[in-house]
UniProtKB/TrEMBL annotation:
Tree of life domain: Bacteria
E.C. no: 1.4.1.19
InterPro entries found in the cross-reference section: Aminoacid_DH-like_N_sf, Glu/Leu/Phe/Val/Trp_DH, Glu/Leu/Phe/Val/Trp_DH_C, Glu/Leu/Phe/Val/Trp_DH_dimer, Glu/Leu/Phe/Val_DH_AS, Glu/Phe/Leu/Val/Trp_DH_bac/arc, NAD(P)-bd_dom_sf
PROSITE patterns: GLFV_DEHYDROGENASE
The keyword Amino-acid biosynthesis belongs to this UniProt entry's keyword annotation: no
GO BP: any one term: amino acid metabolic process
Every Glutamate/phenylalanine/leucine/valine/L-tryptophan dehydrogenase C-terminal domain range: 140-348
Keyword Oxidoreductase carried by entry: yes
GO MF term set: nucleotide binding; tryptophan dehydrogenase activity
Name of the protein in question: L-tryptophan dehydrogenase
Annotated catalysed reactions: L-tryptophan + NAD(+) + H2O = indole-3-pyruvate + NH4(+) + NADH + H(+)
Amino acid sequence: MNLFETVTEMGHEQVLFCHGKDPDIKAIIAIHDTSLGPAMGATRLLPYISEEAALKDALRLSRGMTYKAACANIPVGGGKAVIIADPANKTDDLLRAYGRFVNNLQGRFITGQDVNLTPEDVRTISQETNYVVGVEEKSGGPAPITARGVFLGIKAAVEFKNQTQRLDGVRVAVQGLGNVGKHLCQLLHEDGAQLLVADVSSEKTEEVKRLFGATVVEPEEIYSVNVDIFAPCALGGILNSETIPRIQAEIIAGCANNQLGQEQIHSHMLREKGILYCPDYVINAGGLINVYNEMIGYNEEKAFKQLNNIYNTLLEIFARGEQQEITTNFAAQQLAEERIMKARKLKNQPIAVSC
Ligand code: NAD
């Protein structure tokens, strides 16, 4: 990998390689863009197969955070950190050493919990720095607000397609009935939608069947059921060359991260099939809105009000996609970049790239 070329191409402002001997620590903090505000992004701890793989992950995910925040109209930038370590070797010393690196950035980067870190680990990191979120879940966790954001996104998509927000009688297939999926089922049920659901856990499908009158199908069947909307709320990479031809829904709107197997190829496949795809990082921004509000002092009413940004942004993305004959994924990226450029101009901030 040509480091500077890659970083310049992806538009990162700063990439920090944090290392130390006692304790032995290797971490990468990628700050993609701070035009809209301090870079925000959770920290994951993984035994990456190579340092290059770790760097790629940090670069890709931090850029994703920039776009997510810009589309959600939240005044934060995009960042991400990776600690290269085996979870078995996670110690308080390691976490505190990492916390000192975060603290050295003096608020340019604010982090939280991702893969292989627990709320308890975040608390340990917070012994060295205040620039962490999620130490105490003042909001009761992000899942309910994420689900409500997805629900509003579904309403925006239905309005765009059918010129009505009404969901009564609309058939929705929900894949994954975890923290977000179950909440989403409740909101859809209360609004009169008919649910078809799948999960690998029969306990979860039985509960949603009992509570919301859902029809349960096998996990593999969920792609091909005859529905209006498909809501992926389980795994990434599920929209691919094998599944897309089977999908009958005309709208895809769910919370799962990285739904598209290959962004370019599969977003085009969806468009060619006439399926309205709600870009995942736009529709699932409720979690980010939640942590942002925890950071500034949690106010439920304010946080829920900001969720309307998801609805409005999606309508704008759909209209752009249609007018310019581009995928909704590309339209979202365009919109995010425009918002960032506008903020940069306002600040008169040079687009400096430094490592
Ligand atoms: P979760 O782990 O609580 O739920 C996932 C559910 O999917 C589980 O019930 C699991 O049994 C089910 N599942 C796994 N494999 C499946 C398969 N093959 N078919 C059907 N179901 C399957 O996770 P969650 O917090 O509800 O998040 C769901 C997705 O949304 C994840 O991709 C997550 O990264 C993303 N997301 C979550 C939030 C949040 O606030 N929790 C925010 C943004 C994005």
